Amino acid sequence: MSDHDGTRPGQQPSRRQKLKPFEYLAFAGVAGGFTALVVLLSIRDLVLALVFGGVAFIVTVLVTATLMLAVQPRDRDGRAQHDPEGRDRTDASDS
Fold it and tell me: pTM for the full model?
């Protein structure tokens, strides 16, 4: 039986699994920085640019987290780990 993150109960998470949250925060940071730069270059107000950059960062983090909750993890062979009807995967693949 495996957890929702793809690791077994006694197994340590891989380096890629440990860095996954950092990837989401870095993506949101880049989006926030880009938004702040666009506002700064167009309006030339530093405070307003920081506000818009912060809002863009927060919105990007929230949207990314919501989308990641909606995605089902997959096995190595491409099948979903959990059957929505609660049946075992081997039974669901036979029928």
Answer: 0.68
For 7, half-sphere exposure in the C-beta direction (CA atoms, 13 angstrom radius) is 11
* pLDDT values of the chain reduced to their tens digit, one per residue, 95 residues: 445 556 667 788 888 888 888 999 999 999 999 999 999 999 999 999 999 999 999 999 999 999 988 887 776 666 666 655 655 555 555 55
Among 22, 10, 24, CA closest to 71: 24
> Distance between CA atoms of 95 and 85, rounded to whole angstroms?
13
E strand map for 1-95: none
- In sequence order, what are the residues at sequence separation of 6 or more whose Cβ sits closer than 8 angstroms to the Cβ of residue 94? none
